[in-house]
Write a structure and sequence with these properties.
heterodimer; A: alpha+beta; about 50% helix; B: about 375 residues; globular
Chain lengths: ~160, ~375
């Protein structure tokens, strides 16, 4: 039972960093990776490949799925010499970002790297994404309508 | 009949060079960057991504530049590019309830929970040309306002559905077909129709939607809700076996509420049509929702008498790449075709002339 929980927790953590990294702008990933410093030997197992994912919508937003249109996606896979396999899937055509994401993913599964990666790469990028989201939301909030209600006079 | 026509290679080559020259325009004007296009002509980019059926802002901007701003040509370029790429798979269905909405309006309820958020819209602009834009001045940043801790935008459809006033959308059915993989066959399922409409030409769908409003298949629509904003795309990579978010994309969706009288089995309730487009494309999403609803005529036991309700007519003519290809192919050499018709017409004319002469001769002889 506790084993399942820890597997789930590990999977959730991996899901989180892969998602944060994929949604970050390519130049930001590049910058934080450059600043991270030396990392162990690794080989690119799957060279970056650009392809398509069919984005599914749902009828009326909540009903049966339908194919809404495709998007470009880049993927890559990296293996550390110690055996950990990392993958990167990122929206758009970003070969370099896909390899960096795969390398971070592999490294985050190796002993002793996860905390530094979280502190120096994943958490700051997640914070930046939050800030971008807040900026957009606060511009939208300024356009929210305040209705003036005019009370009708009695008898008219 | 087509016959290979030799010659003209040099003319064609020079024509392509002239095209490139005209694309560049006057050399004393700075060249447009694709970044300028996707930042400052964003809605053109959105249309090309939607009808090109490929979400990639940079590629759509490049296509627009290459096509000299001809959006239908740009859509064609993007469609051609996508055929060179492998398909990694299908995403999980978008959950637009999780949208970080920049705009969200409802024309059915003034006090819709979450409020009417206008976002960036032309709706209240005066449509007067703004000559200040010719002066190239910097524009101040947009005003901001504090954001609720958890801005919750419940769907208008969900609210009406709970009351039983609105039909629920069809839930998961059999695995749908994908018209980029298997050819369109009729009658088409609703998911197939929606895929076709999503990549369909905006002008064509707009005219059809307008025709339903003018009485050709009236379906009495209200905008239940329009929302535009960023939604995460989740995908299950084969190597992982669990879902990760691979991107955040901007989409526009329109949930249209329409009248329906009810039947023996169904008490009166409103029906719906749905539109979804990449980027900010409200006119497209609304037209799509109206045509989607019109195409449900048969399912809702309505008499289908108008073009917008005719599935074969709509689905077979909605694609701008197909339509423009077939219309424009008339420019290609049809010399032999035409020669044979010329021979036939000359023969027919000779016969008519002969008959007339014979008749005149007969009259004279009488």
């Amino acid at each position: 039972m506790s084993f399942t929980t820890s597997v789930d927790a590990a999977q959730e953590r991996r899901q989180r960093w892969l998602s944060v990294l994929a949604k970050s702008p390519a130049d930001r990933i590049d910058a934080v990776w450059q600043a991270f410093g030396p990392v162990p030997e690794h080989t690119v197992l799957r060279r970056p490949e650009i392809g398509l994912v069919m984005v599914q919508g749902r009828i009326s937003g909540t009903g049966a799925p339908f194919p809404a249109g495709e998007m470009t996606v880049t993927r890559a896979a990296v293996r550390l010499c110690s055996g950990e396999l990392g993958i990167g899937y990122v929206g758009g055509r970003h070969p370099r970002q896909a390899v960096i994401v795969a390398t971070i993913d592999a490294l985050a599964q190796a002993d002793g790297w996860q905390q530094r990666l979280e502190e120096e790469i994943v958490a700051p990028l997640a914070e930046e994404a939050g800030a971008r989201r807040r900026r957009r939301a606060s511009a939208a909030a300024a356009t929210k309508v305040d209705f003036f209600t005019v009370a009708r006079e009695a008898g008219t | 009949m087509y016959v290979a026509v030799k010659g003209g290679e040099t003319a064609i080559e020079h024509s392509l060079e002239l095209l490139a020259d005209r694309r560049r325009g006057a050399r004393d004007v700075p060249e447009l960057s694709t970044r300028q296009i996707h930042e400052q002509l964003a809605l053109a980019v959105d249309r090309v991504m939607t009808e090109g059926s490929c979400y990639d802002r940079e590629l759509a901007a490049l296509a627009i530049k290459q096509a000299r701003g001809d959006l239908v040509e740009a859509i064609f370029l993007l469609r051609a590019y996508r055929t060179t790429l492998p398909r990694f798979g299908d995403s999980l269905p978008l959950d637009t309830r999780r949208m970080a909405a920049e705009r969200r309006i409802s024309s059915t309820f003034k006090d819709v929970p979450g409020g009417q958020v206008l976002g960036p819209t032309f709706d209240y602009s005066h449509r007067l040309l703004d000559f200040a834009l010719m002066a190239n001045g910097e524009h101040p940043a947009a005003p901001t306002a504090p954001v609720d801790a958890a801005p919750d935008l419940p769907r208008v459809g969900d609210i009406l559905e709970r009351e039983g006033m609105l039909e629920p959308p069809p839930s998961e059915g059999s695995p749908h077909r994908d018209i980029t993989r298997t050819p369109l066959t009729l009658p088409a399922s609703r998911p197939v129709r929606l895929q076709n409409l999503a990549r369909g030409d905006e002008g064509f769908l707009l005219a059809l939607a307008y025709s339903t409003q003018r009485g050709y298949g009236n379906n009495h629509p209200f905008v239940g809700e329009i929302r535009f904003g960023a939604v995460p795309v989740s995908f299950v990579p084969e190597e992982l076996g669990f879902a990760i978010e691979i991107a955040e994309i901007d989409v526009t969706e329109c949930d249209m509420v329409n009248q329906f009288a009810g039947s023996h089995d169904v008490p009166p309730q409103f029906t719906r049509g749905y539109g979804l487009a990449f980027g900010h494309a409200e006119r497209k999403a609304m037209a799509m929702a109206l045509v989607d609803r019109a195409l449900r005529a048969q399912e809702l036991s309505e008499t289908a008498t108008s073009p917008a309700q005719d599935e074969e007519f709509v689905l077979a003519h909605s694609d701008s790449v197909e339509a423009s290809g077939f219309v424009q192919h008339l420019k290609l050499p049809h010399y032999v075709d035409f020669q044979s018709e010329l021979v036939v017409v000359r023969l027919l004319r000779a016969e008519v002339e002969a008959r007339r002469r014979q008749a005149a001769f007969d009259r004279a002889a009488e």
